[in-house]
Amino acid sequence: MGLKTVAVYSTADRDSLHVRFADEAVCIGPPAGKDSYLRFDRIIAAAEVTGADAIHPGYGFLAENADFSAICQDHDIKFIGPAPETIRLMGDKSLAKDTMSAAGVPVVPGSDGVVSSAQEGARIAEEIGYPVIVKASAGGGGRGMRMVEKPKDFVSLFNTASNEALAGFGSGECYVEKFVSGPRHVEIQLLGDGKGNVLSFGERECSIQRRHQKLLEESPSPVVSAELRAQMSDAAIKGAKAVNYEGAATVEFLLDDQGNFYFMEMNTRIQVEHPVTEEVADCDLVEYQIRVAQGEGISEREIKLEGHAIECRINAENPFKNFSPSPGTITAFHPPGGHGVRVDTHVYTGYKIPPHYDSMIAKLIVRARTRELAIQKMIRALDEFVVEGVHTTIPFHQQLLRDDRFRRGEFDTRFLESFTLEEKNDELS
């Protein structure tokens, strides 16, 4: 696009590739996020000293922080994302649910907003029927979330979720929902221009999760028909239009085995798994984000989706020791290549993985004409992917892709609870 870029980084990330490749780079503090990537003042100062007129927040730290978006506005710096009030509304899960319900988007039965106490939550749980799930109103990533199967356990699990939410998000408010058994996690990728126009880029299947953290994503979903895709897209678009959405968004749904889908949440940012959508829609979603932020409108049309794409998250974790983190120095790094193979990464041979942040070190994405061919291509790419010096999740993905149930598309969000990882020699690979 011909735009010059400025990278901000903590001292722990001084050797990361984004620092090397940007036109300019500014150090904003020590490793701890609270002293660097979460410091509004240092990021704004970096923008001002370099003359940057826009900030892309990525998909972590301040990406969904309404206060930061507002401060960017105050300093006449464009926040590449939705307005502060939209982030705030969608970030409060109970308000988001009410907003989507009013817009005609299907929602899971549950409390009308946050509940005032564990006792009130228990009463609502009795009304909608067990099992139920307690969710932090301001939460995410599986924190502040507990499933309750029996009435006798409700109060203690509610209090546990509330305390976890208070420690993690500064708010202990929770709401209660009916637990949908055996659901799939299917999400719709949207782009809005803030002028009433919204595009749908189809769905992503994100059901392969561990502790509510996604490990593998694909598009399209193996169980979503063209008719169901249209229904889910229409619902997601209604929700986005209800808040006059600007930028990239993902509307996450629970999909049961009867084809019923229910709104979970809206992510007001680009997501880790956006490359699978880019591959099947033949587009650059980040470029679209920037163009919308520049004031360009979009014309509503049907996005043509072709082929099948799969993404494996390559984390520096040991899958044979309960996915424990594995920071350290990468002594050899050889990514796979070839037609339809893409690797997004910030690491290289000699890079030292710091222990301070998320353990993901690469995203491996493949595209092929069909799902079966994409699976075969991903297996080949994983077999070629060499990372030495630290443990990675590559062996997990190699076994998952060869699992018969996965290959048949027979899985839901609890699939990994019944997936047995074959023990291997615990040597660094």
Topology:
Layout: E1 6-10, H1 17-21, E2 24-29, H2 40-50, E3 54-55, H3 66-74, E4 78-79, H4 84-91, H5 93-102, H6 118-128, E5 132-136, E6 145-148, H7 154-169, E7 174-178, E8 184-193, E9 198-210, E10 213-219, H8 226-242, E11 246-255, E12 261-267, H9 274-281, H10 285-293, E13 308-315, E14 317-318, E15 324-325, E16 328-329, E17 332-334, E18 341-345, E19 352-353, E20 360-368, H11 371-384, E21 386-388, H12 394-401, H13 404-408
Parallel strand pairs: 1-2, 3-4
Antiparallel strand pairs: 5-6, 5-7, 8-9, 8-11, 9-10, 10-13, 11-12, 13-20, 14-15, 16-19, 17-21, 18-20
Helix pairs in contact: 3-4, 6-7, 11-12
How would you characterize this protein structure?
With 429 residues, the chain is of the alpha+beta class. The chain has 13 helices and 21 strands. The strands form 7 sheets. An 8-stranded antiparallel beta sheet has the order 12-11-8-9-10-13-20-18, sandwiched between helices.
